[in-house]
Amino acid sequence: MYMRIAIIHDWLTGMRGGEKVLEVLLDIFPDSEIFTLICNKREISDKIRSKKIHTSFLQSMPGIFKYYRNFLPLFPFAIESFDLKGFDLIISSSHCVAKGVKVPKNILHFSYCHTPMRYAYDQFNNYFSLQKNGKIRFWLIKNIISQLRKWDIKTSDRVDEFIANSDNVKQRIRKYYNKEATVIYPPVDTDFFTPDENIKKQDFYLMVGAFVEYKKPDFVIKIFSDYLKDKKLIVAGNGPMKNYLDKIKGANVKIITNATNEEIRDYYRKAKCFIFPGEEDFGITMVEANSCGTPVLALNKGGALEIVKQGITGEFYDGTEEDFIKKLENIDKKLYDIKSMRENAGRFSKEKFIFSFKDFLKRRNIIE
């Protein structure tokens, strides 16, 4: 039976973890239509670009792609402006407001939740500090976020069932929305991210991710620049902290922007260790590194606890500089079994995601 399916995604301004999930949802539902607040077609994949994409009134705002975070107070109004009449199923891919879309009567809405809004709840101070914003701006932000939080909790009732991207997020959904969720881990392309017997490990450490505060690139760069000057660090990514990171990095730190997937894969393969310093809801890059045969040093919080197997696929540190350096030295001394790391990554394969998502729908008689 043909179904008209709408996939709601917060925004399309680049290819990060959420967009990788979206790509696989499009593999499952190739005829679906995308609804998103804004879309920069130059920054998304051909697979996503080829679909019918509906954007909100924010798309025409001057400077929207560069400063879209400043339009946060308008996001609820924008997501509620979409008319979804005529669709048979709504699937939201949400880490901000996508799950708050208005759903027509008698239409099911399943939300794949990457996380309840981090900045609206326990991680507010990681995004908005008094020191960086000043008293007046900080007061305004707190009031805006307070209203956003109320809206976020209220609109959780628009979701028929939540799917969490990790047990960590399942607990957050229960805590903030008082809802239960089914855990389906996000997909990693383990057929692409593979070891290469012809590539030898090189003498450098790797971090991959957006240059934003909660990912803590400055924490790692400062340690290497101040205390580990004899060790080389490569940081691949981009974002609002780029200029600041350029200022604080030492000669042993190399920052790379706009690396291709193939280049990132080569870095994974060659690195002695992949570094994941922040607390996140899941952490796809850790799986990609393991899939390429590289151990991970991760903060002992959040989604990392579901991915890294202590002493087998990597190590944990406690958040301090001292323990970070100690655990990095431990990794240097140890040999990690590539087969074990590959097997660990296999738990999060694209095939597992597709099977689990289809099984979720079959159990609810949505598909046969």
Short description:
By secondary structure, the chain is of the alpha/beta class. It has helices spanning about 15-30, 45-50, 65, 75-80, 125, 130-135, 135-155, 165-175, 215-225, 240-250, 260-270, 285-290, 305, 320-335, 340-345, 350-360, and strands at about 5-10, 35, 55, 90-95, 110-115, 160-165, 180-185, 205-210, 235, 255, 275, 295-300, 315. The chain folds into 2 domains: about 5-185 and about 350-360, Glycogen Phosphorylase B (Rossmann fold, 3-Layer(aba) Sandwich), CATH 3.40.50; about 205-345, Rossmann fold (3-Layer(aba) Sandwich).
Key descriptive features of the protein:
368 residues, alpha/beta, Rossmann fold, 2 domains, 7-stranded parallel beta sheet, 6-stranded parallel beta sheet, 16 helices, 38% helix, globular
Give the C-level CATH assignment of the largest domain.
Alpha Beta
What is the second-level CATH architecture of the largest domain?
Answer: 3-Layer(aba) Sandwich
Compute the CA-based radius of gyration: 21 Å
Number of strands: 13
Structural class: alpha/beta
CATH-defined topology of the largest domain = Rossmann fold
Query: How many discrete structural domains?
Result: 2
Beta percentage is 5-15%
Shape: globular
CATH superfamily of the largest domain: Glycogen Phosphorylase B
Helical content class: 25-40%
Q: Report the sheet with the most strands, covering strand number, pairing sense and barrel closure.
A: 7 strands, parallel
Strand order of the largest sheet: 3-2-1-4-5-6-7
Strand-and-helix sequence, N→C?
Answer: EHEHEHHEEHHHEHEEHEHEHEHEHEHHH
Number of helices: 16
**What's the rounded overall pLDDT mean?**
94
Termini gap = 9 Å
Low-pLDDT windows of residues: none
